[in-house]
Each structure stands twice: as structure tokens, then as C-alpha cells.
Amino acid sequence: MPCARPRFAASRRDRPTATPSTPRLLRLALVLLLAAGPAGAARAEMAAPAPPRIHTNQSYVEELSRPTRLPVDDSLAVFAAVFGQLPDRVTVYPTENYYYFTFLHDGAPWNGNIRLDASDRDRGKLHFAYSEDLADWRDETDVAHAVLDQSHGVIVEKVERLLYRVTFGDKSVLFALNDLSGVKPPADLLGPDEKFVGPIFDESGLRFFLVFNSRLKLFHYLLDETARVPEQFVPMKSGRIVVGKRTGYGFYVDGQRARKILVGVAFANSRVNNYFDGPFDQLPDNFIEDDSFRDMILAVAPELKGKIDRYGGWGDGAQRYMIAPYYYYQHTGELAAFDRCVADKRVPEANRPACFVIDEESQQSFSPVPRAIKELRGKTARGKR
Length: 385
Description:
19 strands; four-stranded mixed sheet; 9 helices
């Protein structure tokens, strides 16, 4: 069975490849930015550099101390509380169209998302999910998920291609989805066997190009450096690996094509399902217009033929094929395996892209063995028979 994830929410897992669930706290500062809308984002981009915005413990404690009342077992009541505090227009940056939020209630942190799913938003559907926050020391918390539509008093209207009006009661909010339709990788960034799938805006604030190698039948996430990259990278002792200070994302710096290939995501971030759990849950849904993406998935997982839609979903859209070729590392030193693979003279140059793919067995064993090395070992084992 291919690795799958629920379609209605971002991931959650106990082990690196466990079936995912919801989003997580750590979102408050970004929510404030999202609420500013495209005009606010444009002004921030064009404005002269300013001192960083300061967040104080005082404001946190005072928010925590304020008494709140919310029937958290009533999804529609929670939606009303969240929706009622949104401005008249918001910008949804992540490309799977999750609008994340957090709140503190009765001394506990909660998180969730409003999602305009590409598969059913034009049919008036809105997905709403929330849960108590995750933490390393506790078991997973229950996730509440509801598909809301006119029968619940929630009206979703398409205004423009990537602009939707949501009305609930006497309040309407415009949801501006992230239009990256003009974003393409530079011509020299892709190899001869690679096809561009689409642009990705991750909730971490980083942008990626999702690419597919049709000969080797594998996917990669390439860092989009055509725009400002809000990250600083620390080089590891092992050759060409760099790790982001803020995100913990590990990249292999490809000197041949001057690009950064995502090879590592910190397992600790995946475990608590924060903004930095990897871009697998922010696929370029808004820019998938034909069956080519489905064909790519079927090339990797032919057993899904006749079962998935063009977004890679199945089970009436409840599950989705999970594209996570990178490794969930516990220590950055583990990422040296990618360097060693590229340096291994037994790996043909044409097969080096397979050096940046980790399978489920390696994820579960916490021992990264790139696909290219596994294939070499398989050939050696067959030769000994």
C-alpha cells in the first residue's frame, strides 16, 4: 500500500511515515501576516527594511490569563469563533490552500485550518479542522474535521479563478489563494529527464519547485531561489549539505546545476507537526489542470491505477498519495548519507538523482540508505545467487 495521508488536514505522525492528520500551533506570527492580505504582503515586500517585529512574554501571558468560553466539541461553534475574527480579506499562502490559525483556550493551545480544497470548493464545500496542540511528551490529540457547506449556513462562492467569498451569517470574507501561475524554474535548473510539476509555497515560508524524473520515476523538491529566500543556511561538515537555521530543512547543494535539493526534514518538527514538517502537504493543487500529475504518480505506484483522481487522491478524496522523498533526520550527521551516495563511483551519473530519495523502510529504521545505494546492493545480492 502506498504511503497515504488524509486530504483534509496537514500531517501528523508518531513515526516518520505514519499516516498524517492535522496542523499545529507555532502559527501565530504567520497568521498575523496572512491576515494582512496581498496588499499588506506587497507593501511589506516593497517597504524599506525595518527593525524586526518584537513579540513579548507579557502579551503571551496576558492572552493566556484572559478567560475564554468556547464549546470545543461543537465544530460549527468553533468555526464561528474563528471566522468571526477574520478580516474582510485574507491571503492563503500555502499551495494546498490551508489557512492556518491558533488560539489559547482555558490554558491550552489549539490549532486548526480552514481549507478551500481544489477538488470541491467549486461545489460550495469548505473544510474545517482543529485540535489541541501536539507536544513531544503526549499522545496525539483528537482531530475534529467538518465539511461545511450551505446546509450549515456556510456559502462558498467563486469570485475569480483564485478568489473565493465565504459567507457565514452576516459576515463575508474574501479568501485570496496564492497565485503562483507565473512561477517557473529557470531553464537550466532541471535535468534532461526531469519535468516540472508545479510551484509550491510551503507553510514554512519557503517556496519549492516540485519536479518528476520520468526515467527514474521519482520526485524531488527543489528550493525556489528566484524570489527572496527567508532563511539562513549552515553548512555541515559533510560536503555539500546545508541546513536552514529556522526551518531545519536540509539541502544538498548540487554544484552541477546550481540548485538545492531538499533531502532532510527534522523528525522533531514532523513529530509535533509544526510549520517545518516538510512540503509534502502543500502540493501545487491550484496549477494541476490535466492528468499528467496522476500519470506521474501511477508511474511510481501503478497499483493505484483506476483509484486516484488527478490530485492523487482516493477513497472519495479522503486519502492522498504522499510525496516525501526526503529523510526525517534526528541528527544532521545522518544527512551525510546523501553526500556519500553522490561520491560513490559505483553510482552512474545518470542515476545520481536516486541518491536523494529515501524509501519507507529507511524512514522506519532511522537509517538513511538512498535508493541508488539500495539498488546497487540489490544487484550485488542477485549476482551472488
